[in-house]
Amino acid sequence: MIIASNNKGKIEEIKKILSEYEIYSLKDKNINVDVEEDEDTFLGNATKKAKEIYGIAKEGTIADDSGLCIDCLDGFPGVMTHRFLGEDATDRMRNEYLINEVNKHEDRSAQFICNMVYYDGERTVVGEGILNGVIARECRGENGFGFDEIFELSNGLTLAELSSEEKNEVSSRTLALKDLRNKLNN
């Protein structure tokens, strides 16, 4: 299977979780395509990416789209998770912006939502994972990427304060991959 992503952190995470499968990155297959995520849902973006990469490679393709949805911000940043401050914004800039916005509210609850799509030219199989937590009051932790340093779990630790193995046990991507794997095996 091919992972329809150029995100190194995401690729490593998926390879670790699906270690029993033969998984290739776009780079492994010499595919230099960055599919534009212009759909209005996670499922729409994941499906679009899986189908476009399948169209090039003609091999089973896994694609995902995921994001952070913050309740007090009406689900923002949602499908715009990585792009809401522009392409040149750093993870730290996005995280500090969100902390400042959430600090204006009492409700700090949030979800990481991931839709994982497998497409092989005939069938589309969808896995979904939802991880509940809250937005931390400050950036904490050295591990992970993206919003990991501001997403606090019920145990009081941010995802960035977990080891990669601990994070892979609970992440929305893990939950979506497990859901997808179960559906593929049935």
How would you describe this protein?
The protein has 186 residues and is an alpha+beta fold. The chain has one domain (2-185): Maf protein (Alpha-Beta Complex). Helices cover 32% and strands 20% of the residues. It contains 5 helices and 5 strands, in the order βααβαβββαα. It has helices spanning 8-17, 42-57, 91-102, 164-170, 172-185; strands at residues 2-3, 61-70, 109-119, 124-135, 151-152. Strands 1-2-3-4-5 form a 5-stranded mixed beta sheet. Strand 3 (109-119) and strand 4 form a beta hairpin. The chain starts with a strand and ends with a helix. The mean pLDDT is 92.
Summarize the structure.
The chain has helices spanning 8-17, 42-57, 91-102, 164-170, 172-185, and strands at 2-3, 61-70, 109-119, 124-135, 151-152. By secondary structure, it is an alpha+beta fold.
